[in-house]
Amino acid sequence: MMQREDKDKIRRNRVEFTNDLEVDGVFLDHLHAVGMLNDAMLENITCCKTRREKASKILDIIPRRGPDAFGHLYDALVESDQGFLADLLRPENENKRKREDAIRVQSARSRQRYGRQISQPSDEQQNPVLQPAGSYDMVDEPKNWDDVMNTLGDIQVQSVQDDYIRRLALDNPGHVYTNLTSPRGRAVIINNQSFTGTKLTDRHGSHLDVSKLERLFRVLNYEVVVHTDLKAQEIVSKLQDESYNPLHRTSSSFILTILSHGRKGEVFGTDGDPVEIDKVQKIFSECESLLDKPKLFFIQACQGKGTDLGKIAGAGDTTEIEEKLKQFNLQPDSETADATGLDKTPSMSDILTATATVPDMVSWRNTEAGTWFISALVYSISKNAHRDELQQILTKVNNYVAKAETTKGKWKQISQVTHTLRKSFYFFPRMS
Questions:
Q1: Catalytic residue check, 261
Q2: What is the pLDDT of residues 261-280, one digit of tens each?
Q3: I need a surface site. Which of 10, 55, 130, 138 has the fewest CB within 10 A?
């Protein structure tokens, strides 16, 4: 039987493993190859419908597979590039594991140069050139809105497999941000759902966005913090306190997501008072611990009261995504007063801001499944973070949001991205 101490380590970290363990592929093959899983166990695991169920099943089986099972579990995690989970089991091995990973990757790099094998540079059939990220076909393009919503129920993010992406992460040329610390950084979510004493309506369904974002950011190895129903001054105070968090000194990046009502250049506190988005960004641009580090802002809020009817691009452009969305009750995340905010362009560096809609326009919220923008954001990141740069991912988000349409009036929406990033940003999932 497995040692009690080893069983306790698995038990203490069960939540993290259930949330983050990537079961299929190398991990499962390794455990099967070393005899920790027999054919019947393997079939029992693969029959589970969700990744979470598979992970839970493995955690039930492994402690009963003898004294060597713990070591094989650790090896399987390392082999499948899930070192951040392996370190939970054997934290004393973390530095050694990272050195060995670096040596392994360096050895692979020494045999390759810009995607070609040095030994046979002319044999392109045997040694094809590695293509950079973003050259892939959109193989994960959702066929209908059910694909998006079903995926969000069990968020999975693949580990980096492409040698080109690995080189970007480990060599860190001047055009790519380093984003390899564990955790990557802090991911703060402000969710304003209930509004009292104002003309602003409650944002029903917003808690669903929070759930999606929490799961996604944790899988991406961020420390997640959620604040709910903050007044305008409380938003400013919480973010000012956040800017002094000591974790920023050792982290690689920072994420802030605000879910609220809004108008041009502003988001609202639950008391109906506005907070300028530029003011929020300035708090973190002045944070010395985040100097030269990417700061990502995702804003789910209206930017005005205007609505978009869209234009006909051809009968063949209609997809099942629009048809599915028509079944839901949709509400705008807009304000009741006139939009009086000013056009403002970020002047600070290393900032990316993605907003649910363009200036002067409303954004739409699905009361049964969350907002269009956050649903598309979580889907696109979870499907593409292992291979695509962030701006490529957000272009796909724009595409998904643009396909949506309300039932009454057939209103449309398009999200928007602005940035002052100086380098490319990758999430580098499951790399360390």
A1: yes
A2: 988 889 999 999 999 999 99
A3: 138
